[in-house]
User: Fold HD domain-containing protein from Paratissierella segnis.
Amino acid sequence: MDFYIPEFINTILNALENAGYQAYVVGGCVRDMILGKTPHDYDITTSANPDEIQRTFKDYKTLLVGKQFGTVVVVQGRNNTEITTFRSEGKYLDGRRPSEVFFSDDVYDDLSRRDFTINAIAYNEKEGIIDPFNGQKDIECKTIRCVGNPKERFTEDHLRILRAVRLSTQLGFEIEENTYKACKDLRGTLNGISAERIREELFKILLSKNPSDGIRLMKDLNILEIIIPELIDTINFEQKNPNHNKDVFEHIMCVLDKTPPVLSIRLAALFHDIGKPHTLSVDEKGIGHFYGHERLGTEIAEEALLRLNSSRELIDKVSIMIKEHMSFHNDMKDRGIKRQINRVGKEEIFNLLELQKADKLCSNDNADITFLLEREEEIHRILNANEPYKKNHLNIDGNDIIDLDFKEGKIVGEILDYLLEKVMENPELNEKEKLIEIVKEKFK
Assistant:
């Protein structure tokens, strides 16, 4: 099997081998190359210890990431490559890191400590593939299987349970029976994982081709209640509405898969209807309504994302999309569209449209998004024409209003709000002289 290895990686492998050490690319990059994919990054494992790695690359900038764990980063221009010494590990005492690390001169020791067989494969050009745990067979069979005893692997690092879900989702692989059972049996250990580590795996799941596969797998493993407990109430929650042919959970899963792989959109899709189980009212005809579910959903999403220590910027993007996702009236005029652009921001307005299109398509079999596609074109036209939709787009400001003998204060803002409404309806009015005339006629 021929693999393409980038030149900057070959430089490192050759330097280590020329210095008398064994060296291999290892882990996910080998797995991806076997699958015919181009790896995002490459990790190297070697028989050289950290001091020997640094001596070998004395002419390069090196960063000692963790001497006790045997990891050195070699910097080549824009490329940073992690090189880790072959190692075996002592007992894991905290469900995350080994208490001791023992350097080794045997690549088998290094591969035997890894999480899954598909990641326990090494390669170099001289020796070819090193695969003591039949990872290639599991790749061929599309199987996620732990190296050795799955309960031991998950007890060592509890996050591996969620990592199994993530790899299954990203690769479209099935989790092997014993590994699956261990995930389920040890799911409670995920309660001790830091929010940041949970967030990293969850976000990767959400950015997968079919993120609903990962959410469903978490549900089947009974870990959804640990990772995203807010979703539990949506499962099998019937909407009692003729415009919806799915329960709330299934609708959310559909929307999730139909949105583009942009994190803020995927998170908004995940939480957009999270408030529905708490806002259902049924009218005299037996039809369900969910008044205010978008406001409650915004609050629930913010709490969940704060729990995951997400950035304020990301939370704000997700919140505004959830809050606005119901504003897709078929007859929204230009002024209404401009108000929405003002509320959402021109950077996020098209992300909101992607959420709304997916939401509409997942409502029922006869869903029509023609009006949303037309609105998308209209928003492009408004933005390309630089038509005003914010007060600072007006060709007049507060000082100009004060110069017309108005006192500073509330009245200035009211006048500017009035002028913006006029200009949004008729952009040709956005000239200073015309705006001054409007002020004199209306407020003098």
In short: The CA atoms of residues 89 and 101 lie 5 Å apart. The radius of gyration is 28 Å. Residues 228-387 form a domain with the Hypothetical protein af1432 fold (CATH 1.10.3210).
